[in-house]
């Protein structure tokens, strides 16, 4: 049995079993694609030992033919992604709102495949640029596939699908020189944004910490659009879907994200792979915001507008289930690359809303699969096929896999007993939404407030998060070469908050508004700056009367050490029992300690699997210093190890040290570093260190006093 065997966790209709039918075990003997045993596929057939290759060589031709056609077009957006299998389990029934079995059958584990992606970069780009992340989930339900194709931020840049090609052309690398790769910091994107006021709320999210996730399982997910749920008596309720990271949503800081790209292009993908490979899981709570059409009609924003959230202070998120990812794909191409999500994959008991972005997506995803996967039979690929049986009169096309017996492929028919038959009871029925009116190419007036929720977002962030937004805008806009684009953006920022606009103006060499001239502190991360950004909330509109709301700041997140990676810095002759104690203490909390030594292998009873020079502090959540020697000198004197500590401090990460390790902390080239437990530097305090991991970052290092 391979690892595709049933693990007892999933329901009867197990996708694992289904995929196993398509999985070819490695063979003993080499054959060609028609099953002929091959005697030699390393030398082509030639006329004489040194002669030309013969066209007759059908083995050569077949091998090259297949190779020549191995590539398929990558996704036009979300090209770079990583996938994993798992299950979804409902813990609270939503039967009052829907007939969808996946949302009513408590305790059933439904197989899922999830693909998490960046948006702008190509398939071979990096994992940690500043970018929105795709969060696409396929539920293989008993009623057919349900795809929830969302993002890690709850709003989108445009309000109408017809603008999507323009937006994507603007954000992708510029067409004349194909630069920059996987980055939004360039003229065409900001030109488009500056001319598209509806993008202001989303651009605030894009410039926030949300777009620098620490790992794939420390980001939340959002269905973005308003959908409908339909109950047994045909009543519709509006719903917004949420994924809340069980480990909490946490981010990297910008300097760290940039360095991560250099240290490991595949950092997020590798973390997800290794976590699962080592028996761990990635987990999210599934939540819904439920509200009626009547409630929605009361609010000063339109729930059909995808640039708006429904603030959690208006409608709390009700957690009703959990998703667990626990199995890596067997083959990246067959599963992660060929998976084809579609927002139009919904099941009875659900329906769309009239959100014009969603309506356009329902066309676009179906359409794109044809150019990416090459045939209308892409739905029969193992990763795409439904666990619910498929019967209809669709036939033929390139690469047809099914063999449909009989002569009936039409309806109505008498020759086949009028089958497959319609089933009005079990079948999908659109909710009878009233729709009438003139044909108009317009945007509704109710979509016209573009700054209200941008302000709500700004107000709801903590000072340190505001500072990060401010710095991101300073960085991104300073990369824009065209001055009028930069200036146009300042005018928009002015509408969100004059202080924000002024701070960005200063960095761009523009004149800040006269009453907002307070300078940035001068030094990076200065107390003055943070205090400045703590001031003055903006008045909001389009937010249901709220000034700020919960659910937006990442610093409200749960504190847990689970999944945290700790670098244990040590040298030859390290105190092996100290390493083991630390590792055990970490494991107890679900964290992991990786020994980082001067070389690979044995350090004296402890094995180093990473070295000080082959890894980097940005790849860890915290550092713990112990003792030992490096090339005959004490670890504390090693410059690279000292820098390791300094970098971790600079990125606000917990630092621990024990015994001799303390000297390494003393020697770190970081004048601000204080051995102060309240700043997350814990000396000879193992328990305190493990607890500190839960806090993720010590933002109070910025101010020394101001609270995050
Ligand atoms: Fe997508 N989007 N999108 N998008 N999107 C695609 O579909 C599109 C939008 C999202 O891991 C493409 O199969 C249009 C919003 C994710 O395979 C394409 C519009 C949200 C993924 C496409 C949007 C998303 C895609 C490219 C505006 C969050 C990756 C390949 C009307 C709610 C799925 C593909 C995966 C992928 C079109 C806007 C999320 C071209 C036309 C809003 C997570 O069809």
TrEMBL record:
Domain Catalase core per the UniProt entry, residue ranges: 31-419
GO MF annotation terms: catalase activity
Key words of the record: Heme, Hydrogen peroxide, Iron, Metal-binding, Oxidoreductase, Peroxidase
Catalytic activity reported: 2 H2O2 = O2 + 2 H2O
UniProt xrefs under Pfam families: Catalase, Catalase-rel, Catalase_C
Region feature (Disordered): 1-49, 537-558
Entry cofactors: heme
Enzyme class, UniProt record, top EC level: oxidoreductase
Keyword Transport appears in the UniProt entry: no
Residue spans of biased composition, Basic and acidic residues class: 1-18
EC number per UniProt: 1.11.1.6
PANTHER family: CATALASE, CATALASE-B
Family statement drawn from the similarity comment of this UniProt entry: Belongs to the catalase family. HPII subfamily.
Name of the protein in its database record: Catalase
Organism: Deinococcus antarcticus
């Amino acid at each position: 049995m391979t690892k595709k065997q049933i693990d007892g966790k999933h329901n009867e209709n197990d996708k694992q079993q289904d995929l196993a039918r398509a999985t070819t075990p490695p063979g003993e003997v080499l054959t060609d694609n028609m099953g002929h045993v091959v005697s030699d596929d390393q030398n082509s057939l030639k006329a004489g030992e040194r002669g030309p290759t013969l066209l007759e060589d059908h083995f050569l031709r077949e091998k090259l033919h297949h190779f020549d056609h191995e590539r398929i077009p990558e996704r036009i957006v979300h090209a770079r992604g990583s996938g994993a299998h798992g299950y979804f389990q409902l813990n609270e029934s939503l039967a009052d709102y829907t007939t969808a079995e996946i949302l009513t059958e408590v305790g059933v584990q439904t197989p899922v495949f999830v693909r998490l992606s960046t948006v702008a970069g190509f398939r071979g780009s990096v994992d940690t640029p500043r970018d929105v992340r795709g969060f696409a989930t396929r539920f293989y339900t008993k009623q057919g596939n349900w795809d929830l194709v969302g993002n890690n931020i709850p709003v989108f840049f445009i309000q109408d699908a017809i603008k999507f090609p323009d937006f994507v052309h603007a954000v992708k690398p510029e067409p004349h020189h194909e630069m920059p790769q996987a980055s939004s910091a360039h003229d065409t994107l900001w030109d488009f944004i500056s001319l598209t006021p509806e993008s202001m709320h989303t651009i605030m999210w894009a410039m926030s910490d949300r777009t620098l996730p620490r790992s794939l399982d420390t980001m939340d997910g959002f269905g973005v659009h308003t959908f409908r749920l339909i109950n047994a008596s045909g009543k519709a309720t509006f719903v917004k879907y949420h994924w809340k990271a069980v480990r909490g949503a946490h981010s990297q800081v910008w300097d760290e994200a940039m360095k991560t790209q250099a240290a490991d292009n595949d950092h997020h993908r590798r973390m997800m792979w290794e976590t699962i490979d080592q028996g761990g899981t990635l987990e999210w709570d599934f939540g819904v915001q439920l509200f009626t059409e009547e409630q929605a009609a009361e609010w000063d924003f339109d729930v059909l507008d995808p640039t708006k959230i429904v603030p959690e202070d208006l409608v709390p998120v009700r957690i009703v289930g959990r998703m667990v990812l626990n199995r890596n794909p067997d083959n990246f191409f067959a599963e992660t690359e060929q998976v084809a999500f579609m927002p139009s994959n919904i099941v009875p008991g659900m329906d769309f809303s009239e959100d014009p972005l969603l309506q356009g997506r329902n066309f676009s995803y179906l359409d794109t699969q044809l150019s990416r996967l090459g045939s209308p039979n892409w739905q029969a690929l193992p990763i795409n096929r439904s666990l619910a049986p498929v019967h209809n009169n669709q036939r033929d096309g390139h690469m047809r896999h099914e063999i449909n017996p009989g002569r009936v492929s039409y309806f109505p028919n008498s020759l086949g007993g009028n089958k497959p038959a319609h089933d009005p009871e079990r079948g999908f029925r659109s909710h009878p939404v009233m729709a009438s009116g003139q044909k108009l190419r317009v945007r509704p007036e109710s979509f016209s407030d573009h700054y209200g929720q941008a302000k709500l977002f700004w107000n709801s962030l903590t000072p340190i998060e505001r500072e990060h937004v401010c710095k991101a805008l300073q960085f991104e806009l300073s990369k824009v070469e065209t001055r009028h684009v930069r200036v146009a953006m300042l005018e928009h920022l002015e509408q969100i908050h004059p202080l924000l606009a002024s701070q960005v103006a200063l960095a761009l060499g523009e004149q800040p508004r006269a009453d907002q001239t307070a300078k940035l502190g001068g030094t990076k991360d200065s107390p003055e700056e943070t205090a400045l950004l703590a001031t003055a909330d903006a008045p909001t509109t389009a937010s249901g009367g709220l000034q700020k709301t919960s659910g937006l700041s990442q610093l409200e997140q749960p504190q847990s050490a689970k999944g945290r990676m700790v670098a244990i810095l040590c040298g030859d002759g390290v105190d092996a029992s100290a390493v083991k104690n630390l590792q055990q203490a970490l494991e107890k909390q679900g964290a992991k300690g990786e020994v980082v030594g001067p070389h690979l292998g044995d350090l004296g009873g402890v094995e180093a699997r990473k070295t000080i020079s082959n890894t980097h502090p940005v790849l860890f959540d915290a550092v713990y210093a112990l003792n030992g020697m490096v090339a005959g000198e004490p670890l504390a004197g090693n410059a690279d190890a000292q820098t390791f500590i300094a970098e971790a401090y600079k990125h606000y990460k917990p630092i621990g040290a024990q015994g001799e390790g303390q000297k390494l902390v003393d020697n770190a080239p970081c004048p601000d570093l204080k051995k102060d437990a309240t700043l997350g530097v814990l000396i000879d305090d193992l328990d305190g260190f493990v607890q500190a991991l839960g806090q993720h970052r010590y933002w109070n290092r910025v101010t020394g006093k101001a609270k995050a």
